Amino acid sequence: MQPVLETPIEYLKGVGPQRGELLRKELGIATFGDLLLHFPFRHVDRTQFNTVGEVADENSAVQLRGVVKQVRMVGEKQARRLTAKLTDATGSIDLVWFRGLRWVQPLLKEGGEYIVYGKPTFFRDHYNLAHPEIEAAATWDDGAATPLQPVYSTTEKAAAKGLNSRGIGKLVQALLPQVGGSLPETLSLKLVEHFGGISREEAICEAHFPQGKDRLEQAVARLKFEELFFIQLQLLKQKQLVQREVKGNMFAHVGDLFNAFYQHHLPFQLTGAQKRVVKEIRKDMGSGRQMNRLLQGDVGSGKTLVALLCMLIALDNGFQAAMLAPTEILAQQHFRSISRFLEGLPVQVRSLTGNTKAAERKKLLAALQEGQVQILTGTHALLEDRVVFNNLGLVVIDEQHRFGVEQRARMQAKAQVPPHVLVMTATPIPRTLAMTVYGDLDVSVIDELPPGRKPIKTVHRTDQARIAMFDFLESEIRKGRQAYVVYPLIAESEKSDLKDVMDGFESLSRRFPLPQYAVGIVHGRMPQEVKDYEMARFIKGETNVLVATTVIEVGVDVPNASVMVVENAERFGLSQLHQLRGRVGRGAEHSYCILMTGDKLGNDSRTRIKTMVETQDGFKISEVDLQLRGPGDIMGTQQSGLPQLHLADLVKDADLLQEARRFAQWLLDKDPEIADPANAPIAAALHEQMKEKAVWGRIG
Ligand code: ADP
Ligand code: MG
What residue's CA is closest to ligand 1, atom 19? Predict the structure, then answer.
C-alpha cells in the first residue's frame, strides 16, 4: 500500500484524536486508505423531487420538499416515538422516528422547510415515512453546487459528534487532494478502456463526488469489477498453485471392477448428468494432480452412485477409498446401499462409526491397515488418529455443510500423497456464491433427476385444514405408505418447541392409536441411541408416522415415505424446507409435502412458502434464498469463506461477478505468471493484496 494511505486517520485535517477514535471504533476507519474506501451507499440527486401527492407505493424511495409541522413526542416506553407532518402544495405526509429521538428532535423546527428522503410505508390507510433522511432546506441549498451529493453510512454515536453523512463527506473532500497522485492503477489498459477509460484514481473520486450520473455509474462499475476481479484472480491463482505443486495419485486406468459393475451390476441407466460428472471426475483423477472437486446435486439426483463409481476407479488403481457422512444414520445408509450395489463383486466394504464395538473395530482397523478393506464408510470416527489406511486414494465427503475445512485436512493427512477429494452437497449453492466461496475448487453439477420421478405435490395449509390433513395421512397410511411430521428445531433454550413436538406426538398418537398404527418420535434432546433406534424402526416400516425435529433433514432415504408434513413451516428457512421435502418422492408412488402455517405470514415467510409450492428446482430455490437472506446467512458457519466487499454485492452484481471470473480465467490462461508488461498493474496489485490478507481462500 502507498505510505500515505496508511496514515492514521487522526492526522487528517478536521479529525484529531477524539474523532479518530470514533471513526476507528464506530466505522472501522483507521487510515486514510480506509476512509477512501468508505464509499457512499447512494447519492442524493439534488435536482429530482417528488411531491407528497405522488407517493403511491412502498417500493420506490421519494425525495420531498416541504414545511414541517406538529412535531410531537408520543407514546410511552417501547412505543415512544417522534412524529411530524411534512406538507407541500399537494398534501401532507407523516414522518416518524422510533430511534435516536433525542438526536432528531432538536433538528426539527416547526414551520421550517426541509428536504426528506425515504421509502414510504403503508400503515393504517395511509403512507408515512419512517426514519427518513432529513435536512433543513437552507443548508441543503448551500450544498447545491454538487448536484449529486454522497450519502455515507454512519452510526448514531458518530453522527452525534458531527460525523454524520455530511461530516464524513467533508473529510473525504479534505482527503482527496492529499492522496491525489498516489493511487496507482490496478488494471491493465485494456480493462480500463473496457470500463469507460476511467483510471482507478478518477474512479475513486467519482464514486464519492461524481460529476454526473453516467460518470458515477461507470466509476462504480469499474470499482466493483475490480473488487470482484481480484478476488477471483486470487482464487484462481491459488488453484493454479495447488495444481502445480500438490502432486496427486495418478489413477491411470479404469479397470475390471468399474467395468464389471458398470456392465453387469448397475441397476439402472445413469442419467446424462451422472455420466458427464463421472467423466469429469475420472479425467481429474487421471491427471496426476490432486483432485479437489465439489459435486453439487439436488436431493435425489443420485450422488451416491457417482461416488461409488469413482471409488471403484480408485480400487481399480490399487487404492482404498473412504466415504464420510455427517451422521450415524447416513453412514449406515451409505454402507447399506453401497454393499447392496456391490453384491456379488469382490470388494470389501466396511463401516466404522462411534457405535462400532471395540472388538470389531480392532479387527477392522487391522484389516484396513493391511489393505484388505477397500471401501470404508463412516462418520467422524474415520478421522481419529488410530484409523490408518494402507493406501488411501480417494475421500468422498457427503453433505459438505456439516464438515469443516479442518476435517477435510485431517482426512487428507492420512496418506503420503494427498488423496483425491470429492465433496458432495445436496444444498445447492447459487452459482455466484459457489464461484466465490468455492472458487478454488472445481465444481461439477448434477442438474438432472433420474427419470420417472413424480413431482412432489406441495401445498400450503393453515390450522383450519388440520382435520382434513389427518384424514389424508390416514388414507396414505392405509395404502401402506409412511409419513413424516416435522416440527421446528429444539434449541436448548426453547422449551415451547419441545412442548410443540410432544403435543404433536400426542395428538397424532391419539389419532393413529396402537395397535393398528404406530407413531414414532425423534427429537434433538434424545440420546443418540434412542434416536437411532427410532429412526431404524421407521426405516424398517415398523412405525407409520415419524414425528421429528430437523434431525431428519439431511440425506435420509426411506423410499416408502410419501408424505412430509412441516408444522410451523414459516419458521423454516428455504433450504431446510427443500431438504425436508427431499425426504419424500424417493419411491415410485406419488408424494406430498404439506406446509402448515398460521393464518398471518410476514412477507419473507410468504415468499418462502410460495417458492416451495411453485418449484422443486433446488437451484432456483437457492437463488430466492440468497435474495432473501444474503450471502452471509446462507453460508452460515462457512462465512469465513466470504470476502469483505466495499462496493460490490454478490447478489446484485452477479453479472459483473461472472464477468470478473471470466476475465480472471482468461488472463491466467494467456499470461499464467502475469508477467506481460501490459499486465504489470494487475500483478502489482495482486501481489499487494495477497501480502495484506494472508489469503482467506482455502487450501485443498
Ligand atoms: P442424493 O443425490 O440425494 O444423495 P441418492 O444417491 O440417495 O441421491 O439417490 C436417490 C435414489 O435414486 C436412490 O434410491 C438411488 O438408488 C436412485 N438412483 C440414483 N441414480 C439413478 C438413476 N440413474 N436412475 C434411477 N434411479 C437412480
Ligand atoms: Mg445423499
Answer: 302
Report which protein residue has its CA nearest ligand 1's atom 24.
450
- C-beta neighbour count of 417 within 10 angstroms: 16
428 lines ligand 1 (CB under 6 A): no
Topology (CATH) of 42-151: OB fold (Dihydrolipoamide Acetyltransferase, E2P) (2.40.50)
Res. 548: pLDDT tops 80: yes
pTM for the model: 0.72
Range 550-553 contact pairs with CB under 8 angstroms and sequence separation of 24 or more: 550/486, 550/488, 550/489, 550/524, 550/576, 550/580, 551/522, 551/523, 551/524, 552/484, 552/486, 552/522, 552/580, 552/583, 553/579, 553/580
Domain 456-615 belongs to what architecture? 3-Layer(aba) Sandwich (3.40)
What architecture does CATH give domain 268-446?
Answer: 3-Layer(aba) Sandwich (3.40)
Distance between CA atoms of 630 and 634, rounded to whole angstroms? 7
Residue nearest to atom 20 of ligand 1 (CA): 302
268-446 shares its CATH topology with 456-615: yes
Q: Give the number of the atom of ligand 1 that is nearest the alpha carbon of residue 301.
A: 2
Ligand 2 centroid from CA 428, angstroms: 13
**pLDDT tens figures, 179-201:** 988 899 999 999 999 999 999 99
Domain ranges of the chain: 42-151, 183-245+660-700, 268-446, 456-615
For residue 304, which amino acid is it? T
Q: Separation of 450 CA from ligand 1 center, angstroms?
A: 7
User: Does residue 270's CB lie within 6 angstroms of at least one atom of ligand 1?
Assistant: yes
Shortest-distance ligand to the CA of residue 618 = 1
Q: Give tens-digit pLDDT for 600-628.
A: 898 899 999 999 999 998 888 988 998 88
Percentage of residues in the chain having pLDDT higher than 70: 94
pLDDT number for residue 694:
44
Q: Per-residue pLDDT for 32 more than 50?
A: yes
Neighbours of ion ligand 2 (CB under 5 A): 555
SS3 at position 146: coil
Each residue's pLDDT tens digit, 291-340: 989 899 887 889 999 999 999 999 999 999 999 988 888 898 899 999 99
Q: How far is the CA of 367 from the centre of ligand 2 (A)?
A: 27
pLDDT of residue 554: 57
Beta carbons within 8 Å of 657's beta carbon, 6+ residues apart: 228, 232, 432, 435, 436, 648, 650
The number of the ligand 1 atom at minimal distance from the alpha carbon of 303 is 2
